[in-house]
Design a protein that fits this description.
The complex is a heterodimer of chains A (114) and B (114). Helices cover 0% and strands 59% of the residues of chain A. Chain A is an all-beta fold. In chain A, strands 2, 4, 5, 9, 10 and 11 form a 6-stranded mixed sheet that branches. A 5-stranded antiparallel sheet of chain A has the order 1-3-8-7-6, with no helix packed on it. Chain A is globular, with a radius of gyration of 14 Å. The relative contact order of chain A is 0.34. With 114 residues, chain B is an all-beta fold. Chain B has no helices and 11 strands. In chain B, strand 9 and strand 10 form a beta hairpin. Chain B is globular, with a radius of gyration of 13 Å. The chains are: A mainly beta (114), B mainly beta (114). Chains A and B meet through strand 4, strand 5 and strand 10 of A and strand 4, strand 5 and strand 10 of B.
Chain lengths: 114, 114
């Protein structure tokens, strides 16, 4: 059974700092990995999607890497801003035939202080 | 519509009652997913539709939970004989098609069973 772990559970940083969020998964047989952002009381916003054949994806100040064989992904946020404060969730989709479900971690709650 | 719409946004019901939660996916999206998110946890998969049919309902916790998508668009998640443990945020997501595409999530329905 796939399990996804995110470390740290919470992180507080001053504005402008570069930071790394970690995600690990127990079964390396994944189809893709996705990072989401969740604001309080809101749904999930997709940030980056990495296919299993890819090593990284970039969008603006965000960069996500994937090391499938070791079961790890990192989300790098450059020059953090108070508006980046949210919970960041990592989710993997298995590559078993017909499996469309995502398995999520519990998230990392990020606070960026002005 | 422009996004995934879920109604109601909040629902309070008494233990033992029946509830229906509605999801309007993005127009043209053939894949639709239901997830449940308890406090402090990541979302957990419930059921996935491709068109009108439930392609994977392995996440439904028991037979009190049922979901339909009769015309391949709007979906309704139905919960019978609600229990306090059913209290959670129920999230719906849609995707252009199952496969390589990312998900778009709605804002969720917060269900509270008292």
């Amino acid at each position: 059974k796939q399990e996804v772990t995110q470390i740290p559970a919470a992180l507080s940083v001053p504005e402008g700092e570069n930071l790394v969020l970690n995600c690990s998964f127990t079964d390396s047989a994944i189809y893709n990995l996705q990072w989401f952002r969740q604001d309080p009381g809101k749904g999930l916003t997709s940030l980056l999607l990495i296919q299993s054949s890819q090593r990284e994806q970039t969008s603006g100040r965000l960069n996500a890497s994937l090391d499938k064989s070791s079961g790890r992904s990192t989300l790098y946020i450059a020059a953090s801003q108070p508006g980046d404060s949210a919970t960041y969730l990592c989710a993997v989709r298995g590559d078993q035939g017909g499996s469309e479900k995502l398995v999520f971690g519990k998230g990392t709650k990020l606070t960026v202080n002005p | 519509g422009a996004g995934v719409s879920q109604t109601p946004s909040n629902k309070v019901t008494e233990k033992g009652k029946y509830v229906e939660l509605r999801c309007d996916p993005i127009s043209g999206h053939t894949a639709l997913y239901w997830y449940r998110q308890s406090l402090g946890q990541g979302p957990e998969f419930l059921i996935y539709f491709q068109g009108t049919g439930a392609a994977d309902d392995s996440g439904l916790p028991n037979d009190r939970f049922f979901a339909v998508r009769p015309e391949g668009s709007v979906s309704t998640l139905k919960i019978q004989r609600t229990e306090r443990g059913d209290s959670a945020v129920y999230l719906c997501a849609s995707s252009l098609n199952a496969g390589d595409y990312g998900y778009t999530f709605g804002s969720g329905t917060r269900l509270t069973v008292v």
